[in-house]
Amino acid sequence: MAKRQLNRRQNWRIEKIQEERAARAARRENRALEELEGGDLGPEQTGLVIAHFGVQVEVEALEGEQSGQVFRCHLRANLPALVTGDRVVWRPGNQGIGVIVAQLPRSSELCRPDTRGQLKPVAANVDLIVIVFAPLPEPHANLIDRYLVAAEHAGITPLLLLNKVDLIDEQNEAALNRLLEVYRQLNYPLLEVSAHGGGGMGALKARLDGHVSVFVGQSGVGKSSLVNSLLPGVDTRVGALSEMTGKGTHTTTTARLFHFPGGGELIDSPGIREFGLGHVSRADVEAGFIEFQDLLGRCRFRDCKHDREPGCALLKALEDGHIQPQRMSSYRHILSSLPDPDY
């Protein structure tokens, strides 16, 4: 009991320190904003948030003589939280500093829970989630399916991307083919590439053209290598794959938007690359398994858990081969990991 009380007091002190620091930063920002708005500001124009730095963001001008130029901008206090990928209305000021005056509507949001469990947007206006996996580290259907559920929940098109095809050998080829065949039967788009060897990269570039994309996947599958290959000259360091654990290391630290040379954009950040499903409901998970859609609501019992219940439409489809055991196993594993004890 005493230890819990001590931990609560320590957490309270940490929160108070963080709040005081945030308040001081906000006061400095307000003074800077007042100075800017008291001076000469240019006309309102549209811009694209390409990076976020707490109380300031970097905005790329989208129109006029300054189109393509990047400006560090302050945010007016009445604005909602902005994220990379947001489109905004802003006014340029002196010395490359501007002021954001409005946020434009988002077509999509990619969200994840923060440390307090509150849902927080991490990228906006994304229309393609590239789910990256590789022969090494060994791919798991459960993780791929989690990203597919997240994509469906956000209303964003997924693309499955098998990287490091040069690592396919006699030991892993059969298992990989079984894994991929499940998604081919479900008509998920699938590409196979090698970021190092260059194989398939032309097809990937063509697929990304005209889209705002994010890459997701477990550490070590080569996401940074893919970014380096797609964006020559961009300073994206590649984390070495640990020989001891078979897992990679995070290397990117700030959410940033990049333009592909042939068209399209990429938003890249560790907070986007790996995220959980603690914010979704059971219905959201079911909706993320597209082969379930025509079966949901057809079970004998309205509250069917699709476990052992008689008259379950999903279990009948599993028995008949219309649902693959791999997918049903993923579905059950994802439900068991959600915070609601009723699952």
Automatic annotation (TrEMBL):
Record's subcellular location? Cytoplasm
GO CC annotations on file:
cytoplasm
> Which amino acids does the record list as binding Zn(2+)?
299, 304, 306, 312
**Where is GTP bound in this sequence?**
163-166, 217-225
Question: Which biological process, per GO, is one annotated for this protein?
Answer: ribosomal small subunit biogenesis
Coiled-coil region:
9-36
Q: Which UniProt keywords apply?
A: Coiled coil, Cytoplasm, GTP-binding, Hydrolase, Metal-binding, Nucleotide-binding, Ribosome biogenesis, RNA-binding, rRNA-binding, Zinc
Entry's EC annotation: 3.6.1.-
Q: Give the note describing cofactor binding and stoichiometry.
A: Binds 1 zinc ion per subunit.
| InterPro entries referenced in this protein's UniProt entry, alphabetically | G_CP_dom (IPR030378), NA-bd_OB-fold (IPR012340), P-loop_NTPase (IPR027417), Ribosome_biogen_GTPase_RsgA (IPR004881), RsgA_GTPase_dom (IPR010914)
Which residue intervals define the domain EngC GTPase in the entry?
A: 124-273
Q: Where is the CP-type G domain?
A: 116-275
Q: A single Pfam family, by name?
A: RsgA_GTPase
- Spell out the CDD domains in the cross-references: YjeQ_EngC
Q: Which GO terms describe its molecular function?
A: GTP binding; GTPase activity; metal ion binding; rRNA binding
Required cofactors, per record? Zn(2+)
Where is the major localization of this protein? cytoplasm
Q: Determine the domain of life of the protein's source.
A: Bacteria
Q: How does it assemble?
A: Monomer. Associates with 30S ribosomal subunit, binds 16S rRNA.
Q: What does this protein do?
A: One of several proteins that assist in the late maturation steps of the functional core of the 30S ribosomal subunit. Helps release RbfA from mature subunits. May play a role in the assembly of ribosomal proteins into the subunit. Circularly permuted GTPase that catalyzes slow GTP hydrolysis, GTPase activity is stimulated by the 30S ribosomal subunit.
Family of the protein in this entry: Belongs to the TRAFAC class YlqF/YawG GTPase family. RsgA subfamily.
* Name the record gives this protein: Small ribosomal subunit biogenesis GTPase RsgA
Q: What is the organism lineage in this UniProt record? A: Bacteria, Pseudomonadati, Pseudomonadota, Gammaproteobacteria, Pseudomonadales
Q: Which gene is this protein's source?
A: rsgA
